[in-house]
Amino acid sequence: MEETLNIIFTKNHPLPDDVKAKVVSILYTLIASYIDVKGQILEAHWNSEGKTFISMHKLFDDTLTKIDEFIDPLGERIRAFGAPARAKLKFASDNTLLKEQTYITNDLDANLNVVLYCLITLRDYLYIVIPQVSKMDETTSNILQEHCRDIDHLIYLNQSCVCSCTD
Ligand SMILES: [Fe+2]
Fold first, then answer.
1. Which residue, 149, 105, 158, 153, is CA-closest to 126?
2. How much distance in Å is there from the Cα of 60 to the middle of ligand 1?
3. pTM of the predicted model, to two decimals?
4. Rounded distance between C-alpha atoms, residue 121 and residue 113, angstroms
5. How confident is the model at residue 101 (pLDDT cuts 50, 70, 90)?
6. Contact 33/56 with Cβ under 8 angstroms?
7. Fewer C-beta neighbours within 10 Å, C or N terminus of the chain?
8. CATH for 17-166?
């Protein structure tokens, strides 16, 4: 969803409309992807079983909480521009960055890889769009930089749990 959107901006925000449209397009993609990722991590949180269940259940829960916190400031930023904020499930599934939904089983390591795939997809997108956004809107760029830093940390935490043992 990176094309320039045809939006009527209903608030008197000083950024030019074409700039706001580009930023809102990126924020829509992120909101859709965060909502999609929440569902995938929730399934990993519920379905995983194994010897490290308790610690992984908690880590997936902490990851979920953090992703959830990312969504509201993006919707509010969109509204600060006077554009419509979107968050319905159909919107999320139509605009998510994630490819076809990954299959969650009770295999904890497989589910950990799904969570990592989700986080890395988000992080890689943020690394692409942050330099673009920072040229257009420093305030939104600051929000996205916080997300990127937090997701990098979540990747570190989840990657550190990948089992390298052979038993
Ligand atoms: Fe839970």
1. 149
2. 9
3. 0.92
4. 12
5. low
6. no
7. C
8. 1.20.1260.10
Residue 61 alpha carbon to ligand 1 centre in Å: 6
The upper half-sphere exposure of residue 144, i.e. CA atoms within 13 Å in the direction of its Cβ, equals: 28
How many Å apart are CA 65 and CA 159, to the nearest integer?
18
Of 21-25, 110-114, 121-125, minimum mean pLDDT range: 110-114
CA of 58 to the centre of ligand 1 (A): 8
Res. 156: pLDDT tops 90:
yes
Q: Which residues of 115-126 are buried (b: 16+ CB within 10 A; e: fewer)?
A: bbebbebbbebb
pLDDT value, residue 153: 97
Q: Which helix (H) or strand (E) holds 42?
A: helix 17-47
* Measured distance CA(68)–CA(8) in Å, rounded: 28
Please write the tens of the pLDDT for every residue from 62-85.
999 999 999 999 999 999 999 999
Q: What are the extents of the domains in the chain?
A: 17-166
Phi-psi region of 48 (alpha: psi -120 to 50; beta: other; left: phi over 0): beta
Are 122 and 37 spatial neighbours (Cβ–Cβ below 8 Å)? yes
